[in-house]
Amino acid sequence: MDLRHLRYFVAVAEERHFGRAAERLHMAQPPLSQQIRQLEAELGVDLLHRTTRRVDLTAAGRAYLKRARAILAEVDDAARLARRVAAGAVGHLTIGCVGSATYSLLPALSRRLSLELPGVDFSFRGEMLAPDQVEALRTGAIDVALLRPPVADLSLTVRTLRRDRLVVAVPADHPLAKRSRLRAHDLADADLIMHSADRRSVMYSVVLRLLHDAGVEPHVRHEVGETSTLVTLVAGGLGVAVVPEPATALTLEGVVYLPLAGPTARVELALAHRADRSEPHLTRTVEVIETMV
Prior knowledge:
The protein is α/β, with parallel strands linked by helices. It is 43% helix and 23% strand.
């Protein structure tokens, strides 16, 4: 069935007049009348009673009008949905966040995405280490990752967003807490709390390299998987920890954060997604994140 015939019929049925319907449709009256005749011939029923002054619906026409309107409404809804999908305004995405971004960036990001892309259903997974995020991107468990490079997987597109300073989380009653800033060699005698080596944490490698370059042999007292647990143990007086500056959003009683001096005392935050993904809603989400960071 030609959808144009449905639109022509609905216009005539609603106007009850071929001339007014033709004007509404921006076409001449004779072609419109011919199109309605063709529709009736295809259906094998009369839809209209025609007089010189007006047009009335037959019983078949009244039934057909109800269904025609419903069909056209569905078609129009489908067209609107297609345009919204093409514009990146509809879809579902799961975003995975490294620990420090979970606290510092995720609250504002979730609000911003809800405002700018209200038709996209977002879910979030926080406290993810980079290796877990890379695997989740591969399997489709997450669609976008905010992680710490390096990322060696060539199937992923990785864009550096910023370079975060490193700070030292110190128990408030620790001797180092009296300092205004620290250098890596100041940690030579300190008990360290670090992200887990077993889970291939990027921060574990970053901190070890930083201490090694300063000639410090680390005294690792605890290894943990989550940044929140790491800072909680610092609050408990079990040691000090080197963390990205955004982790200072975790304001626990008993913890102070001190700047860590040195040109290498930084760590990158990057955005990653599968290179074969180019859906409009994913592209728009990436653009929103990049404007925020």
